[in-house]
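Support request from a user on the community tier.

User writes: "When I paste my structure tokens into the form, the page sometimes reloads and wipes my input. The last time it worked, I copied everything first. Here is what I submitted, just in case something in the input itself triggers the reload:"
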């Protein structure tokens, strides 16, 4: 494990939602778990006219997680933690001089012995990423003369291939690529990382992990919530940009990539890049029409309460065509995956919050138990990313008694059953990695561009064609038409709320 050196974390966008809800709680958990170095401070920076104390009060009030520690056994940890939080007010002029900020950073560095090691976290609207990087550069805060410097950049990373390339070029003018950490919080999820371990630390899966044995791959990313308070951002983004281009394509890359030489950041990222480049780009109207579906949730009654439709949400255009549901069928053009269809869907306002990957294996090529009564003949490997992290294998077993009746049984593993199952929250894990200089779970510039290359033609098709925007009632598994994508396979697997509820052959009941 790498060492966590003394350092300072400077968060731009310190008065924002992400800082209070995710970043500060993650750093607090690192403090509670004893993962922070001895000399460590956080300097929040944004344009709000706040004092150190106001920043501290804001994060405690806005984060339920922190509020729980104000009293009780962790009160002391909380107090020590708050003493390490500071705030600096930036000028509201975007091109302003950062020399007062530099003075503050130098003063804190001297007083708290943070060793000249600084992480700059960009948690602002994306339009501020480049001006902030430029201002840091102008103050020499990029240069690793007396310590190291890292820049963490939040998503969305670009709006299209063109803008992502422009942002990469802009940031690389001021920071070197190894200093830039593009965060994708799904890579911080334990079960996403476990995809690599399942594949490459076992000899029983990898020999089957190809077109000879796998019939198709299905990925579902469902949220029960709507767009909440982020209507303004979401309406310009949509499900494909918000979830698919980043999080889901990272998961796809872990599923399809070739084994890396070792687990080093560059080796893993090289293989992920090759994987993303092998996605077959859909660029003719007929293919796009056949293989993509978008939809929006419409008003509905859930648990006796009326739920707003997407177009009625705050800051959403009442005539919006932005998708809250996206489903795609696509192929991977390489030796391993030729002709294996991938079905991926992501949506808001689904019946439950769940993310899972299902590997559907082919049926045995010669069936000797034809009259066995088994309904779904394929073996399935279900990798549950969230909320109840685990893995389940479905296979056929003989029903006791005369003849050869075959039923489906489950072999399962749940993270919750581990004695030590303190799963780090994604931001906690990723922040710790960045603090230790480990970029394995951060996206490289070329990977992000390769992902946009695949997504761009779909977005362009949706923007310029008359591709239908279907409606689905909030609380159902999307529009019926999404089943047309999954041709000849019945329908999408509608996941149970808990993996444990996934019916297997039940001997006792
Ligand atoms: N919230 C979430 O759940 C998620 C957010 N993200 C990403 O994180 C980033 C932040 O999101 P979120 O916190 O929700 O957004 P908010 O709008 O809540 O916060 C952004 C903050 O940035 C500050 N800000 C604006 N311009 C500047 C500037 N030039 N310099 C310094 N600070 C500035 C604003 O504060 P002030 O006016 O005081 O300067 C504001 O508080 C976005 O890129 C978003 O896409 C990603 C995943 C999830
Ligand atoms: O990045 C985002 O992710 C969240 C979903 O994250 P999860 O960890 O709760 O699955 C999503 O709600 C949001 O729209 C998106 O920007």
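"...and here is what came back when it finally went through:"
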């Amino acid at each position: 494990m790498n060492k966590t050196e003394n350092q300072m974390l400077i968060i731009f966008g310190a008065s924002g939602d992400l800082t209070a809800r995710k970043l500060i709680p993650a750093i607090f958990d690192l403090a509670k778990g004893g993962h922070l170095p001895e000399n460590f401070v956080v300097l929040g920076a944004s344009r709000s006219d706040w004092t150190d104390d106001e920043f501290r009060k804001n994060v405690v009030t806005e984060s339920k997680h922190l509020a729980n520690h104000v009293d009780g056994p962790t009160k002391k940890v909380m107090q020590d933690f708050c003493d390490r939080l500071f705030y600096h007010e930036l000028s509201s002029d975007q091109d302003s001089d950062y020399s007062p900020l530099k003075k503050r950073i130098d003063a804190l560095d001297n007083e708290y012995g943070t060793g000249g090691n600084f992480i700059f976290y960009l948690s602002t609207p994306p339009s501020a990423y480049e001006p902030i990087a430029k201002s840091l550069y102008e103050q020499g805060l990029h240069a690793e003369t007396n310590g190291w410097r890292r820049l963490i950049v939040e998503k969305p990373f670009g709006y299209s291939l063109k803008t992502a390339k422009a942002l990469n070029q802009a940031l690389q003018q001021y920071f070197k690529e190894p200093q830039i950490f593009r965060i994708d919080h799904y890579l911080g999820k334990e079960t996403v990382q476990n995809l690599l371990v399942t594949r490459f630390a076992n000899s029983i899966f990898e020999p089957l992990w190809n077109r000879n044995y796998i019939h198709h791959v299905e990925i579902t990313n469902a949220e029960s919530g709507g767009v909440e308070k982020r209507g303004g951002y979401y309406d310009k983004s949509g499900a494909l940009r918000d979830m698919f281009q980043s999080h889901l394509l990272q998961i796809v890359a872990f599923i399809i990539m070739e084994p890396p030489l070792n687990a080093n950041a560059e080796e893993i990222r090289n293989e992920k890049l090759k994987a993303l480049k092998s996605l077959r780009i859909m660029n003719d109207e007929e293919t796009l029409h056949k293989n993509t579906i978008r939809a929006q949730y419409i008003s509905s009654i859930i648990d006796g309460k009326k739920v707003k439709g997407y177009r009625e949400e705050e800051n959403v255009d009442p005539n919006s065509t932005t998708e809250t549901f996206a489903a795609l069928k696509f192929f991977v053009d390489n030796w391993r995956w030729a002709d294996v269809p991938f079905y991926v869907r992501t949506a808001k306002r689904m019946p439950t919050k769940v993310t899972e990957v299902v590997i559907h294996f082919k049926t045995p090529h010669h069936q000797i138990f034809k009259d066995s009564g088994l309904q779904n003949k394929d073996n399935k490997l279900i990798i549950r990313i969230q909320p109840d992290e685990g893995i389940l294998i479905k296979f056929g077993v003989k029903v006791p008694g005369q003849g050869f009746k075959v039923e489906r049984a489950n072999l399962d593993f749940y993270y919750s059953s581990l004695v030590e199952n303190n799963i780090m929250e994604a931001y906690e894990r990723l922040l710790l990695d960045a603090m230790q200089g480990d970029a394995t779970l951060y996206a490289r510039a070329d990977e992000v561009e390769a992902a946009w290359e695949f997504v761009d033609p779909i977005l362009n098709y949706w923007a310029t064609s008359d591709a239908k925007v279907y409606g689905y009632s909030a609380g159902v598994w999307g529009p019926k038409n999404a089943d047309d994508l999954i041709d000849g396979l019945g329908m999408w697997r509608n996941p149970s709320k808990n993996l444990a509820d996934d019916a297997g052959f039940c001997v006792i009941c």
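Agent notes: The reload is a front-end session timeout and is unrelated to the input. Residues 445-464 form the longest helix (20 residues). Residues 12-13, 15-18, 45-48, 90, 94, 123-126, 128, 132, 154-156 surround NDP (ligand 1) (CB under 6 Å). Escalated to web team.
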